[in-house]
Amino acid sequence: MRSAIPLFLRRMRTPLIVLISAYSIAVLGFTLIPGVDDQGNPWRMSFFQAFYVVSYTGSTIGFGEVPYAFSGGQRLWTTVSIYLTVVAWLYSVGTIIALLQDPTFRQAVVRSRLQHSLRQIRDPFYLVCGFGDTGRLLVRALTERGRRVVVMDRHQTNIDELELKDLGIHVPGFCLDAGIPDNLSAAGLENRWCAGVLAVTDDDHTNLKIAISGKLLNPRVQVYCRAESREAAGNMASFGTDLVVNPYENFAERLALAIREPDTHRVYDWLSTVPNIALPERKRPPRGHWIICSYGRLGRALQAALEQEGIQVTIVEEDPQRTGAPPGTVQGKGTEAITLEQAGIHGASAVVAAGPDDADNLSIIMTARELRADIYLAARQNRLHNKPLFRTADPELVVEPSYIIASKFLSALGSPLLREFLAAAATQGNAWNRALAERMRGLAEGVTPETWTLRISQVRAPAVMLALESGETITLGSLCRSPRDRQHAIPALPLLLRRGSHDTLLPEADTRLESGDRLLFCGTGRGFSLMARSVRNINTLRYVHTGEQHPDGLVWRMLARQRASS
After folding, report:
1. What is the DSSP letter of 528?
2. What is 449-546's CATH number, 3.30.70.1450, 2.40.50.100, 2.60.40.10, 3.40.50.150?
3. CA distance 236 to 230
4. Across the chain, what does the average pLDDT equal?
5. Most exposed of 212, 324, 464, 477 (fewest Cβ within 10 Å)?
6. In terms of Cα–Cα distance, which of 44, 209, 243 is closest to 130?
């Protein structure tokens, strides 16, 4: 509470002076006014006796006249002291109550408490700047994986909501503007345990300032940023930002890929989305004539991507001049049947409701469905709390910018090799990805798979390193056997092996492992935990590799010898 104590002392300076002065005057008066002892002799109180009397008098306790009955002068001064000290106390207590209700003081106390909790963190943590829809998804996903998180948001209501969430791990939340470098430092940017900064505010300029501050104040941390325009994304990348995600450009590229190579898109979709949600099975987007309602950032990105695929696009825009919509644009919102009919819905293949308002987007897809029950519908969902409405409306494709950003960030944080694998998989063709998707479906248990990386090193795989140093041959397939029963495979699929500068896609089970290998897997959380047992315990590793069980511990070894001799 380093920042709260100076503020408290400044505010209480005058009340403390008043209180001390009142007690000093009262004590001095009692020492100067004479009294009479029990023998009738004159006497005066010492400073200690006077302070004792004023203490119980000022607090209205009233122990009586001690050590002797007071004289008239002493009783008169006692009356004066009572009113003097009581008024001083009322003034001081009133100031304390006003101070406790002061928003500035309360904020200082909360910030000091949060900084104290921040100093107690002894694990790598991520600083999430912005606790909107995207921030909520990131915090939930990171804490579920056991990662430490610190949150910044300039809106107190969002911080209050954070405190109400049951995340399993304490998440400090600072009500600060993340665009100010000093605030980032106060929230832990320069802390030795800060592993990364995730800038997901709803303002590109603020995210840019966060990226600059992150790279200048703590160059070793990873900085991931959200950007909603190409200009902002390029500017962020110029400062060395580790990952910049434009959800609209990203979605447009994925939509074009889904039209061109649906199975390649399916692999990309399953591996890059938020893990442990229902495995998405999406209808293939059609070619033909597309109608895009709203020419904002999403509309522009979709138009460019679809036209690059040779697809005809018609734009519906309420204010074509302001947005710079292309010639041939139909003026309107798309919520009226006549507007969609002018855009050619009866001969179109798909309608995209790409506006910034969820109510309008829902109205567009409902109107389009009334006109054409068989038309392909896609809709932009701007706020997560509207998800039940979009689920009921049931368009074939929902554009969720928050999920796109969160999934990209989580993929990069959880599996550094994933981006390289997805880029390589995109060059393998649709048939190769179709076979991979079927293998993934077989082990996914109905939910999107998790991805993780494994480095063959003393820290990450001590059992494997011990076996290799002993001259044993350990294969990739051994790591994918169950430590409970080696005859069964665990739900894990090796996607990539990086050895030096060479990458191998879908390495075979008989691949021999070497020190320094980096492996990318996909599978379930259960598969990850079972593999972790094998790579960390030498006896478990030998069992999954050879089938031999070596008892661990003195008692178990004795029992094993007795069993062998009998």
Report:
1. H
2. 3.30.70.1450
3. 10
4. 87
5. 324
6. 209
Q: Categorize the per-residue pLDDT at 110 as very low, low, confident or very high, splitting at 50, 70 and 90.
A: low
Please write down the long-range contacts of 186-189, taking CB distance under 8 Å and 24 or more positions apart.
186/111, 186/115, 187/118, 187/127, 187/150, 187/152, 188/118, 188/121, 188/125, 188/127, 188/150, 189/127, 189/213, 189/214, 189/217, 189/218, 189/221
Neighbour order of strands in the sheet with 312-317: 330-331, 312-317, 289-293, 350-353, 376-380, 397-399
Which tokens sit at 375?
């038309």
Residue 562 scores a pLDDT above 70: no
pLDDT (tens digit, 9 = 90+) per residue, 201-239?
Answer: 989 999 999 999 999 999 999 999 999 888 888 888 888
pLDDT tens digits for range 38-83: 888 889 999 998 998 888 887 766 667 778 888 888 889 988 988 8
In which residue are the tokens 């910018």 written?
A: 401
Nearest-angstrom CA–CA distance, 561 and 547 = 18
Every domain of the chain with CATH number 3.40.50.720 lies at: 122-245, 272-282+289-414
Kindly state the tokens that stand for 315: 């734009």
Q: Is 40 exposed, middle or buried (0-12, 13-18, 19+ CB in 10 A)?
A: exposed
Structure tokens at 557: 């070894």
Just give the CATH number of 122-245. Answer: 3.40.50.720
CATH of domain 272-282+289-414: 3.40.50.720
| pTM score | 0.74
